[in-house]
Amino acid sequence: MIKLRFPLLAVILLAVNSSLFSQGKDLPVNLSVIYPVSINTSKSDNVNFNIGIIGSNINSLKGFGVNGIYSVLEGDLNGVQINGVYSETRKKLKGAQLSVGINALTEGGRGLMLGGIGNIVFDDFSGIQLSGISNLAFESVRGFQIAGLYNMAGKDVNIMQFGLAGNVTGMKMKGLQVSGLFNLAGISNKGMQVSSINITKSQNGVQFGFVNACDNNEGLQFGILNVVGKKQNGTTIGLLNAFPDTKVQLLIGGGNFAYATIGARFKTNGIYTSLVMGAPVAISNTTKSILFNYNFGYSFDLKYLNINTDLGFTHIANESNQVENKSSKNQFGITIKAGLEKQILSKLGIFVNGGFLYLADSYNSPSFSNKFVIEGGFTLL
Amino acid sequence: MKKLLFISLFLIITLSSNIYSQDSISVKIKQNAKLKLSNLGKDYSLVSLDNQYAKKDCFRDTIKSLLRKKNINRTGDKEFDSTFKAKKNYLLPIGEVIVLNIGIWSISRYLNPQPWARISINSIKENFKKMWVWDSDHFETNQFLHPYHGNTYFNFARANGLSFWESAPYSLGGSLMWELFMETNYPSKNDLITTTMGGISLGEMTYRLSSLVLDDRKSGSERFWREAGALLIAPTRGLNRIIKGDVSRYRPKSIYEIEPVKSTIMAGPSYFYEIGGIYKGNGNLSLKLDLYYGNPFTEKSRKPYDFFNIKGIFSIGTQPIISQVSVLGLLFGKNYKHKSDQRMLIGMFQHFDFYSNVYYKIGANSLGAGIIYKFPAVSDVDFESGMHAGWIVLGGGSNIKEAFKYEADGTAYRDYNYGTGFTYKFESIVTLKDKGYLFLGLYNYKIYTIDGADGSDNLLMFTPRIAIALSPNTNIGFEYNSYIRSSDYKKYEDYTTRVYEMKLFISNSF
């Protein structure tokens, strides 16, 4: 009973206090159970040291605050505030706002936002946003956005976005975007994008990833597949490159090394690269197997016929070892092929290739065998 | 399931045997028209009416016209009757719920005899005496069919003019009646909660979808197909319309408030495999529906479920046919923006989740807060995202074999735990105009066991998807799903499994 008396008394005193004090005061210390059961009698009171047992709702905090569950500041936060589930500052931040859950900031500002789940800013922000899941800035960010899942900035980003899954900059990105899955800069990349997929409109910096795409490239693209949609004035290094004058075609066919194959070919001024996937692999002794074949070659475009010549690298993945007592689930090979191709309709052609596959039985201490290969099929587009 | 099939069959037969010929409806239209013209003046002309019932409507036309209406909000439609207020009837749905429960019980008692249907005064007395229990019905029964049953109660009330909140107690009442009176099994806590909460969620969702289909301005075969479609979507609403004669009532203006709809159907092969077993996986043909009802960024006051999202996955192959049903509906909320080009909806949402898979099962009824936002449009780039966090009021998650809960006689067992917990969900989509889109989804369910193996279960799903546009509405793409289930049990060894799914798809948005 005695244990209950003190908190009860505190609540009553705080409630009575609400009617005794005038509004809009500067309070050096504020204690709040849950507003209005608090020392501050009005949401326009400014506080230097604030404690919210459940939560508090004050105007500005100039100093330090800690809240159990929530905090709402009608004005600015100048200082440091630590919160439980939710924290909202309706004007500017100059300092640090930390929550286990979500931080929301309306008029932007500068400092540190640390949110266990996420941070949301509705205006320009400078500083560091760090969150377990996601950082969202509707306007521009100058500083760092670091998130467990993804970061978004509606307008410009200067310095860095780091998200395990992805980063989005609505307009201009000047700095570094690093993620596992994708980076997007809506208008331009004037820094560096590093991810599986990097996309922008004007590429004036560096794109480094499996797939890089832009409309205009005046920088460097380095990846497996690079796409430049409209204008190429930069440098592109990759296995498959599509420029404005590149003809991209689908290849569908089959042969005596894979019963069914599908792939894409990128052909620019006679030089072509192609990546083909095939399954099941005819030369494999397991039922489940797949191969990937990359080719680099030149096509002699004659009047009625094209003659294709290429060199290729093949990777074969098998369900089980191909050679007993040898780690030979995965194999590789080198191909050398030549063939004929005829365009029948504007978007349909046929091809037949023949050549040799120098097949290694394993990546570890490989033994090679020589196989004659033949393939045929259609080109589409 | 059999019960529901019986009900559906009964309703369809009743509907088709109703006064449903084109002639009869045409006569009604003419009568209405004459009455209107004589009493109210020229609201509309007989010429246009003649045109209406002279039209050679068919199913195809119905579908076409439905598709044409996809973005029409009839609240802003000149043909929408904003003065219409449905008459509220609080008693009729009570009677309908009782009759439905007795009907289902009768089928299970006499047509397809079930031991639990052998009720008596004594069994009812026993049910009142015994405390509520956690039952051991199949996962699908408890997590999907019971909520579906609750939806039928809810729709009786909605169809009688009651609002969302007024209809909710009918799901509770119908479930209470069933649990206490209609089974010899002891009343079940889980049934009461899932039937009520899931029933409300599925009920309002099906009510809204059926409103999209219904149009009392139509006649002839188009009207027939619309009514049949609504009956299929919300059977008890359809039944109520038959009882009240609404199926054949002509109205010159639409009375159903509907919101714009954006939906996508994805179809393609998928391949599931466990970690380290890429060659031992299983293939399926997967069909996915992703439907958004309502525009969350339109600034307006909203009623419950004026905005909702449904995700449904149907599989042919080794996975269950109904592999996923998820509904996320707005209960209340408001739009917020700091600057004019910002779009955001903040609100409280109701979640219904049902995942049934050979590798894991999760069912959850949740309530929570959420934010949906759209970034300022930047030249051909559109970005939308949403994040939700909620309390799982009651959820069920896969168990391990050692911890299966058996019935006293050993004949039945429960292969899942019941519990409460929390969920969080993140979705974002970046659309590049005429080029394609990137989608990222993260869904997590944490359930602390109340009944079952003591401890907790967690299911984390990560879904990246990339699509390339073939046309403005058609995409092809690839989706890679990662499911990580981890269980932390007190009496059993911790259990973790990782399952992956690769999916190729072609999709169409409409």
Question: If you had to describe this structure to a student in words, what would you say it looks like?
Answer:
The complex is a heterodimer of chains A (381) and B (510). Chain A has two domains: 222 residues; 134 residues, Porin, CATH 2.40.160. In chain A, 5% of the residues lie in helices and 68% in strands. Chain A contains one helix and 32 strands. About 1% of the residues of chain A have low confidence. Chain B has 510 residues and is α+β, with helices and mostly antiparallel strands. Chain B has a twelve-stranded antiparallel β-barrel. In chain B, strands 8-9 form a two-stranded antiparallel ribbon. In chain B, strand 12 and strand 13 form a beta hairpin. Chain B has three domains: 118 residues, no CATH class; 116 residues, no CATH class; 249 residues, Porin, CATH 2.40.160. Chain B is built from eleven helices and 14 strands. Chains A and B meet through strand 20 and strand 21 of A and strand 7, strand 10 and strand 11 of B.
